[in-house]
């Protein structure tokens, strides 16, 4: 006796309809691959929001959103942001968004009341500054610091000016090739070796050492925060090819991850290594039974971008995935 197909969630039906419009525009060449990918990702995000609570498919669609976003960065993007910084932004969005919200709340609370007289009494003051620094928020870190360093200004004015410049102009997850990492890093090393404030104040010295890439494993609160910090503070080596840069990021991720990589993170590594064939095979294993549309749509985007060769297997998979049970 044949089993009745499981009814599709209303949100998934809407996703299929919206996806059809997106890819119809791509077929008629009325939209670019980049725009189609962003529109498809927006439809996936909307699907997650609209899903019934407790839907087992939700995690699969969320993973699809993250993987599509990573493919946009690696294969579809025309942005000037350097890959290490763009990947850092991706990690923060898909792993660390709640952490960043909590950090922003802590910053706002300190901003509203911290002063020279209260900073030593607030146990969250220096930890918050450290977290702001290793998360790439140098301006906010300086804003808190500047509220408590007034007594140092007369004696260490040049030191504070240099520290402010380093924090305000530190690399961010949006930095591009115009960022002069060598000059920025040389300035940090100079302060660590010669600056009287850095040599006498343990807190200031720690901030500079973090900016130079030291102690990140000790102060990062998660493996993904450590990866972001390394992407921010280590030499981006803008002259390297994308695959070589991807392999360097893979090394950071593997070193930071506390255990054997789960299936999703294995796909992330394969994409960073530009091993599309293996990545798509892993995506198939992760979502083929419950959410086959994503693999077919992703493959279609990659083919149209010229990153993947069309095959008979792909065409068959795409036709099958286009059928609504």
TrEMBL record:
Superkingdom to which the source organism belongs: Eukaryota
Sorted UniProt keywords: Membrane, mRNA transport, Nuclear pore complex, Nucleus, Protein transport, Translocation, Transport
Localization, UniProt: Nucleus, Nuclear pore complex
InterPro entries: Nucleoporin_Nup85
UniProt keyword annotation of Protein transport present: yes
Keyword Membrane listed: yes
Pfam family, one: Nucleopor_Nup85
GO terms assigned for molecular function: structural constituent of nuclear pore
Entry's Gene Ontology BP terms: mRNA export from nucleus; positive regulation of DNA-templated transcription; protein import into nucleus
GO cellular component: nuclear membrane; nuclear pore outer ring
Membrane-crossing residue ranges in chain numbering: none
Oligomer status and interactors: Component of the nuclear pore complex (NPC).
Function description: Functions as a component of the nuclear pore complex (NPC).
Protein family according to the UniProt entry: Belongs to the nucleoporin Nup85 family.
Listed name of the protein: Nuclear pore complex protein Nup85
Record organism: Aphanomyces astaci
């Amino acid at each position: 006796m044949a089993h009745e197909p499981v009814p599709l969630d209303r949100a998934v039906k809407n996703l299929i309809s919206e996806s059809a419009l997106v890819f119809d525009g791509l077929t008629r060449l009325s939209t670019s691959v980049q725009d189609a990918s962003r529109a498809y990702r927006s439809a996936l995000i909307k699907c997650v929001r609209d899903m019934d609570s407790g839907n087992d498919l939700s995690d699969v669609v969320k993973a699809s959103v993250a993987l599509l976003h990573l493919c946009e960065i690696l294969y579809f993007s025309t942005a000037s942001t350097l890959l290490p910084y763009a990947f850092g932004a991706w990690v923060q969005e898909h792993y660390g968004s709640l952490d960043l919200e909590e950090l922003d709340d802590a910053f706002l609370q300190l901003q509203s009341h911290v002063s020279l007289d209260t900073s030593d009494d607030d146990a969250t003051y220096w930890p918050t500054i450290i977290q702001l620094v290793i998360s790439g928020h140098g301006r906010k870190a300086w804003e808190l610091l500047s509220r408590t360093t007034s007594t140092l200004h007369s004696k260490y004015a040049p030191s504070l000016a240099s520290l402010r410049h380093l924090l305000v102009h530190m690399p961010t997850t949006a930095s591009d090739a115009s960022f002069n990492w060598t000059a920025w890093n040389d300035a940090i090393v100079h302060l660590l070796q010669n600056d009287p404030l850095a040599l006498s104040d343990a807190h200031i010295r720690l901030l500079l050492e973090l900016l130079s890439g030291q102690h990140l494993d000790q102060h990062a609160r998660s493996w993904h925060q450590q990866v972001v910090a390394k992407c921010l503070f280590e030499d981006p080596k803008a002259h390297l090819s994308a695959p070589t840069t991807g392999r360097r990021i893979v090394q950071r991720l593997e070193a930071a991850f506390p255990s054997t990589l789960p299936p999703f993170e294995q796909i992330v590594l394969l994409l960073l290594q530009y091993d599309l064939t293996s990545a798509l095979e892993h995506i198939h294993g992760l979502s083929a039974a419950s959410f086959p549309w994503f693999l077919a749509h992703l493959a279609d985007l990659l083919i149209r971008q010229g990153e993947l060769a069309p095959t008979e297997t792909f065409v068959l998979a795409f036709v099958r995935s286009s059928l609504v049970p």
